[in-house]
Automatic annotation (TrEMBL):
Membrane-traversing stretches: 50-70, 105-127
Membrane topology summary: Multi-pass membrane protein
Protein name: carnitine O-palmitoyltransferase
Limits of the Choline/carnitine acyltransferase domain: 175-713
Active-site residues, Swiss-Prot/TrEMBL: 454
Length: 732
């Protein structure tokens, strides 16, 4: 509809007297405003590039330096050019073109600018040096020693004023490559509790051989990459772990975020961000935010690619089998919340029927990647199909107006939450565009959530986005008494544009095949969500134990009770203290944790013995987490060494065996990151609620998500009982 609106801007009629040209002034006005908006965006992008490029310097800082330098040299009666023009005049007739006063001014500006550049360069490199120190992470939980306090003051001093999202990128250190001997030693330590003596002795022999022979050679190439590339892991991790996978990304890779609130402000409010820091001082890498919007994963036969547009002025919306392109800009500005609601109401009121193949089309993104890649090349490379696919893939993001109702039902908490989670994870397998950076899913009864594609970023980045939306929606923007967004509908706003498809029967057969694969995968998901509200983060801290360590140890206890054995456990940690950092693995099943679990299973062990082992296990877990965050993890280094060995055509029995070991238990935690955005006493969630999202496969004879959930609840309560906190503390 928007294209049709623009098309009538120019109409002409051929008559005997010539061409009679008719101009639509409203359409011309919109073209003018669109151009103004485009130039404003370019200017802002240029300005932001300059500001982040010179950070921690600033244009105002340059002015201060210039004024200070010129004033100082004038007061001291010193030539501000420091004799530069005197030396040049011996070879060039400068005095013929520039007066003596002009030479002083120009020379002063040049020298002052050089001084400002030098100061900025020094500040940036001092800051990079400071940020390379991670001793602050090894302070006792809840306290900072004097060295760390001094370091924090210095970081604050050299960080400059008012940083933007990407200000610190050039000041962040590079991810270091750990020594091979350290990685091998830590690997063997992590493998010990999972192997018997004979298995361990064999693996130790392979490890020592690798450390002595092939390892140093592979390490040399990896060191070379670390000096040349911004991050020696991230590009390979993105390509080989995500983009080269040929199986479905639905369920296997994509993840979801859940909330019980309604929001019409998803488009109006999403782009508001500031830099994210640890302890309000230490910056984290922001590179993953660059592809949050206007990004889509494009399938290929051998590997997918990420397609990112610098700007997108529309979103793609799906409702009851129909696809729409909805412009988010009009009158040269972003639509207001009430105007977005107006567009959504128009879509909800549309009673049109889907075109052949349209309703199930998105199932292509839910199935295997190769059939989708071939179908995309064969059926969507020209004509209306290409135009419509471009509208979806180049949209800012994808919105699914789901025709089902999902919510937390206090009278039926288990089934309602399980259904809610499964719907966000995979839906009907054809009502989410799984290739988009994220899908915003709004259910019929107003609840909502996200489904995010994983290759472009990790869950904390999407969580950061989600927190901004939830904190801004009901409080800062709000609704009228009759339930509408505040504001008025726009009388001239062009409506959403129905996307047009011409999908032949051959393509529909591919769609059906992909849907069958996706449905089999979705039906096999055994989803269980536990809103654990017996206690939360606040009470765990009173036990003087890390909440992360407490939960991970509880998961180990629950798993042992569930399976009767220990397993290789994956816990994701971030490496965003380094430039372009993503994740590292914390191998949470340690010898110390196993000792504690065995004590919990031993009726003869005393409470004091169990508590002592728990504290040792928690401290060990925190040490591993710190090592992972500070670049001394195990698995990313081994992964990259393995890739180098493949590039060199070298076989390593050690690396092959390590990378083929299955992760039986995979965990990650995404706590609330921006506590200042929420009234914690009001929402009563961050401190007093822990949500466990458990998924396994019905087809596995060993797993049962609900059984595991029961064991998690029991493990959490049993560990808390060791601290013998009174009932009053439990109720706080």
């Amino acid at each position: 509809m928007a294209e049709a609106h623009q098309a009538v801007a120019f109409q002409f009629t051929v008559t005997p007297d010539g061409i009679d040209l008719h101009l639509c002034h409203e359409a011309l006005r919109q073209i003018y405003l669109s151009g103004i908006h485009s130039w404003k965006k370019r200017f802002i992008r240029f300005k932001n590039g300059v500001m982040t490029g010179v950070y921690p310097g600033s244009p105002s800082g340059l002015l201060v330096v210039l004024v200070g330098y010129m004033s100082t040299t004038k007061y001291a009666k010193i030539d501000p050019s420091l004799g530069m023009f005197t030396k040049l005049s011996k070879h060039l007739p400068i005095s013929k073109y520039v007066t003596e006063e002009g030479q002083r001014v120009v020379g002063g500006v040049l020298i002052g600018t050089g001084l400002w550049i030098a100061v900025t360069f020094v500040m940036r490199n001092v800051l990079k040096y400071l940020l390379s120190w991670h001793g602050w992470m090894f302070n006792r939980h809840g306290s900072l020693n004097l060295k760390t306090k001094i370091w924090l003051v210095l970081v604050k001093l050299f960080s400059g004023p008012k940083p933007m999202l990407y200000s610190f990128q050039s000041s962040l250190p590079r991810l270091p490559v750990p020594p091979v001997k350290d990685t091998v030693r830590r690997y063997l330590e992590s493998a010990r509790p999972l192997m018997d003596d004979e298995q361990y002795k064999r693996m130790e022999g392979l490890a020592k051989d690798f450390e002595k022979n092939l390892g140093p050679r592979l390490q040399w190439y990896l060191k070379l990459k670390s000096w040349w590339a911004s991050n020696y892991v991230s590009d390979w991790w993105e390509e080989y772990i995500y983009l080269r996978g040929r199986g479905p990304i639905m369920v296997n890779s994509n993840y979801y975020a859940m909330v019980r609130l309604i929001s019409h402000y998803f488009s109006h409010n999403l782009p508001l961000f500031c830099t994210l820091m640890v302890l309000n001082t230490i910056p984290m890498c922001s590179s993953q935010y660059e592809r949050m919007f206007n990004t889509s994963r494009v399938p290929g036969v051998e590997t997918d690619v990420l397609q990112h547009m610098n700007e997108s002025k529309h979103i793609a919306v799906y409702h009851k089998g129909l696809f729409y392109k909805v412009w988010m800009f009009y009158d040269g500005r972003l639509l207001l919340p009430r105007e977005i609601e107006q567009q959504i109401e128009r879509i909800l009121a549309d009673k049109s029927e889907p075109q052949p193949g349209e309703e199930l089309l998105a199932a292509l993104t839910a199935g295997d990647r190769v059939p989708w890649a071939k179908a995309r090349s064969q059926f969507f490379s020209r004509g209306k199909n290409k135009q419509s696919l471009d509208a979806v893939e180049k949209a800012a993001f994808f919105v699914s107006l789901d025709d089902t109702e999902q919510r937390y039902d206090p009278e039926n908490p288990v089934q309602s939450l399980d259904s809610y989670g499964k719907s966000l994870l995979h839906g009907k397998c054809h009502d989410r565009w799984f290739d988009k950076s994220f899908n915003l899913i709004v259910f019929k009864n107003g609840t909502m959530g996200l489904n995010a594609e994983h290759s472009w970023a990790d869950a904390p980045v999407v969580g950061h986005l989600w927190e901004h939306v939830l904190s801004s929606d009901p409080v800062r923007l709000g609704y009228t008494e009759d339930g509408h967004c505040k504001g008025n509908p726009h009388p001239n706003l062009p409506g959403p544009q129905r996307l047009q498809w011409d999908i032949p029967e051959e393509c529909q057969a591919v769609i059906s095949s992909s849907l069958k694969v996706a449905k089999a995968l979705a039906d096999d998901v055994d989803m269980h969500i536990i809103p654990f509200n017996d206690f939360g983060k606040g009470l765990i801290k009173k036990c003087k134990t890390s909440p992360d360590g407490f939960i991970q140890i509880a998961l180990q206890l629950a798993h042992f009770r569930d399976k009767g054995k220990f397993c290789l456990t994956y816990e994701a940690s971030m490496t965003r203290l380094f430039r372009e950092g993503r994740t590292e693995t914390v191998r949470s099943c340690t010898t110390q944790t196993c000792d504690f679990v065995r004590a919990m299973m031993n009726d003869k062990a005393t409470r004091e013995e169990k508590l002592k082992l728990l504290k040792v296990a928690a401290e060990k877990h925190q040490d591993l987490y710190r090592l992972a965050m500070t670049g001394d993890g195990i698995d990313r280094h081994l992964f990259c060494l393995y890739l180098v060995s493949k590039y060199l055509g070298e076989d390593s029995a050690f690396l092959k065996e390590v990378l083929s070991e299955p992760w039986r238990l995979s965990t990650s935690q995404t706590p609330l990151q921006q506590l200042d955005l929420f009234d914690l006493k009001s929402v009563n969630s961050a401190l007093h609620l822990i949500n466990f999202h458990i998924s396994s496969k019905h087809s596995s004879p060993e797993t049962d998500s609900h059984r595991f959930g029961s064991n998690i609840r029991k493990a959490m309560l049993d560990i808390l009982d060791l601290f013998q906190l009174d009932n009053k503390a439990n109720n706080k």
